[in-house]
Amino acid sequence: MATDRLIDIFALMAQHEREDPHGMSLCEVAAEITELSGAGIAITSSGENMTRLCTSNRLAGVLMNLEITVGEGPGTDASNSGLAVDEQNLDLSENSRWVIYAPRALAAGAQAVFGFPVRIGAVRFGSLSLFRDEPGPLSELQSSDAYLMASVIARAVLAMQAGALRGGLSGELEGQSNFDFSVHQAAGMVAVQGSMTVKDALVMLRAHAFATNKDLSTLAASVVSRRTHFDQGVGTWTEEKVGP
């Protein structure tokens, strides 16, 4: 059974790659093979920091950006714990484990969310996040396919990293348009501006993105282009005015 589903996964990947040779097919295939509304993959690039690799559609992108910005959600928990996460009904807020993520994901259109660690043995590379636009559990086949897809993703990421510097990512992965390295560049700049560690700078970026209702990658691009910077003297963010 698993062999048959692997063949199905690779056949779908080949089909997507023929249709878009320069695209990233993993997220689209994850959504299709599990028959869910969308999928997103986040990679743990260094320590606890997660960066988006790809998303299957607009709403999946919104959910992934939300998760990375607020630092909670199914993929975050799956990556940190190494265990699958199953939230069958986000509307049951009293049972929700995500105080910030859950209501915003609901407002965006997700009703159920799931997370699976992307790992090989004890080594975790990140997570696969899946969502459905109506509540309900995964079937046994959907759950099995999600685990299998996460395994395929882990091996794909390992292949992409082959030959890369320790702790880094290979050129193939860096070349994917959805892998947002500007976030890490921005964190480095904020670390210098605020005389803090890069880890603390990432926390500052995420907090400011949430406070200003901005996408984390949009804020990072603004920092990199020097339109936004952190003023250590007064401990606040400043924005360069555009236009007259």
Features:
single chain, 244 residues, alpha+beta, Beta-Lactamase, Arc Repressor Mutant, subunit A, 2 domains, 5-stranded antiparallel sheet, two-stranded antiparallel ribbon, 10 helices, globular
Unreliably modeled segments: 163-179
**Overall SS class:** alpha+beta
Q: Strand percentage, roughly?
A: 15-25%
Under CATH, the topology of the largest domain is which?
A: Beta-Lactamase
Question: Total number of β-strand segments?
Answer: 7
CATH superfamily descriptor of the largest domain: GAF domain
Give the count of helical stretches.
10
Question: Radius of gyration, rounded?
Answer: 18 Å
Basic shape = globular
Helix content: 40-55%
Along the chain, the helix and strand elements come as HHEEHHEHEEHHHHHEE
Strand order within the widest sheet?
A: 2-1-5-4-3
What does the average pLDDT come to? Answer: 82
Sheet with most strands = 5 strands, antiparallel
Q: Tell me the name of the CATH class of the largest domain.
A: Alpha Beta
